[in-house]
Amino acid sequence: MYDCFVGRDEEVVPFRAQQLRNLLCNLGPSFIKAGQVLANRPDIIREDYMNELCILQDDVPPFPNEVAFNIIEEELGRPLEAVFSKISSRTIAAASLGQVYRATLRDSGEDVAIKVQRPKIEPIIYQDLFLFRTLASFLNGISLQKLGCNAELIVDEFGEKLLEELDYTLEARNLEDFLENFKNDPTVKIPRVYKQLSGSRVLVMEWIDGIRCTDPQAIKNAGIDVDGFLTVGVSAALRQLLEFGLFHGDPHPGNIFAMRDGRIAYVDFGNVAVLSQLNKQILIDAVVHAVNEDYAEMANDFTRLGFLAPGTDVAPIIPALEAIWQNSAGKGLSDFNFRSVTGKFNQLVYNYPIRIPERFSLVIRSLLTQEGICFTLKPNFKFLEVAYPYVAKRLLTDPNPALRERLIQVLFKDGMFQWKRLENLIVLAKENVVKMSSNPALQKNDLQGSGKVEKKLDLKDTIKDGARLFLLDAGIRRQLLLALTEDSQLHVQELVDVYRLLEDQIDVPSMALEVARDFPNVVRDLMLAWTESVLSDR
């Protein structure tokens, strides 16, 4: 307020932001964690402060080894020497809630990582959360006016995630869930957890012998194919978000490793977020609406995802969304990046009653952080040039009925079939298959007979569903026939172009056999549909 009064508020912002960061560090773990959260909340804090608070994600002082080793022995119920033949004398990493050591198991000789919680942290955090909530109750009026929700709700979301991170048994379950999700993916490495040696304050995991993404030169020196590694990383991130609905909430460079065979490895699963099936579908809807340039529906998607309070007038937001997207996407994939879009979105959030739900602040942070890693390893990397092919492949090959519906929405615009979009989707999907199948990690696992390596687009289900839809849905059938005879001419060339794109991907005899096998089911559905129409007429 004083800076504002004397007219020097802008020039001292870097100094004040640094003061804020140091103050939070001195106040303890809850405040450090709050600073880390604020570093990803453009709806609450301005961008220059956010950038300074990002430092809190990597630079936290450790607590003494003696204290950490006592906690480990208390959790194990045994001396350290009985379980570990050696343990590092220095911390490998330190964070706001705990720190990590490297050790070797005495029984098996395996190297492990030991994560130890800071001492007496739980009562401190409960006390701090009480103080945060008390303060929030005085800010409810401002928060309702600016964000459309009360400040206590924001504190509750923060507190819920913070208390989850305190429970290392929950982190062990998160690890097991990630292991299950990626068990058939030979490009992703998730560490095993030693549950018999872990507890609520200590977590023992498999040691990841990889290269941190904080050291791009070491990755290049190790001979790792950077393009292949980045493709694997983006695909793994999108699978977490759009396929599993369970994603790593804190994928900063210290938590992601490049394995020497080209795989990507993740560590630190205390901060994960879950997206419901509905939220995943709405996110895909938003992608479809962006492709179709339907900004009114994009604004409605914001309401459905919880960014806007129900009943909020979205009319003023539509032109702003249109300006952001057209300015960013109009330059093409080669110039698109999430950082620039998010910067413009931050201004939108600051000017309108938009509140970013906690899980989506993690989504935004996750995408931004991983794009930042990509830029560190390859400055001219184009995130969407990898992301679009993955989305295209999922739209074309995933048998999920919801995705089939989204594919139809993409291919039809204003009642007209978009031949060019279909061709682009096929080209992009084939590109994803080629990039993934050429990755050294996939090739090695293919030779060993482990994992599933896709070398062609699996379009059997898509073609069968398309044929079924053509026969059963009169509206789709009419639109496709109109597309083939659009502008009073037969569009045979478009069909030929699509076939040429797919001829190396489809085994026609086996495809015909699959369709023939499905024919009795189609006939049955046709008869049922005809019977229902006859009965409804009566």
Describe this structure as you would to a colleague:
This protein is of the alpha+beta class and 538 residues long. The protein has a domain at 1-57. It is built from 25 helices and 13 strands. Strands 1, 2, 3, 4 and 6 form a 5-stranded antiparallel beta sheet that branches. The protein has a 4-stranded mixed beta sheet with strand order 5-10-9-7. The protein has a two-stranded antiparallel sheet with strand order 8-11. Strand 9 and strand 10 form a beta hairpin. Helix 14 (295-305) packs across helix 15 (317-329) and helix 22 packs across helix 23 (474-484). The longest helix is centred in the last third of the chain and has 30 residues, at 508-537. The mean pLDDT is 79.
- Specify the helix fraction band: 55-70%
Number of helices: 25
Overall geometry comes to globular
Proportion of beta-strand residues? 5-15%
Low-confidence stretches: none
Structural classification: alpha+beta
For the secondary structure, the number of strands is: 13
User: What is the CA-CA span between the terminal residues?
Assistant: 76 Å
Keywords: Kinase, Transferase
Family: Belongs to the protein kinase superfamily. ADCK protein kinase family.
InterPro entries: ABC1_dom, Kinase-like_dom_sf, Prot_kinase_dom, UbiB_kinase
Protein name: Protein ACTIVITY OF BC1 COMPLEX KINASE 1, chloroplastic isoform X2
